[in-house]
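Page 47, continued from p. 46.
Same chain as before, 227 aa.
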Amino acid sequence: MSEEGTITIAIVDDETLIVQLLEDYFKKVDSVQVIMKAYNGKEFIDQLKETDQHPDIVLLDLRMKEMDGIETTTYLREHYPEIKIIVMSSHYMSSFMGYMLKTGVNAFIPKEISPDFLTNVIHSVKQHGYYFSEEHVEVMRTQIAPKVPKPKLTQQEILSEREMEILKLICQQFTSQEIADKLFIARRTVEGHKGNLLLKTAVKNTAGLVIYAIQNQLIDPDELVIN
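Result:
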């Protein structure tokens, strides 16, 4: 993982030019360092198995000939859950948003965005655990919530008042340290509550918590803080 102040990333894309252009661009960005690159999901996973230096974030193409972005995401969520995933695709469609977030990605963006914008997305995912644009919030409002049945929770699975409080602050993009300061508790206490939230809701990451909160009408999409 990265040293203080530097976000380490991997680039996984079957287009050699894209990989090279991104690598060249990030050489000029002090806060982001490319430590790994691969041309399909299998190659990337093979590299992960051979080193202890794993990236904070992977920029992942969706359509690749050998182990595509969805297959790679599924594997990473099971074996390397600490790696955050930004799917960048030339096949981007807003209608895919709900599905992609449910698979465990932290952001889903079109490949046509500018490098500066991509850098902002990387920082948002590193700091908050996810990136949502206004378009993403609209998709969640109109597609995710209405079409997914509300889970039937047992008494043991109901969120505590403190967990609800932390969940709402997560949805508003407060970091763990900011939540700790706001609630006058230790950061490790916040992380403990977040871990309990992930277990109780059976989601895979922070983006999943946001979706859960919307699906169960625990937060209005209009209350989400977006970049």
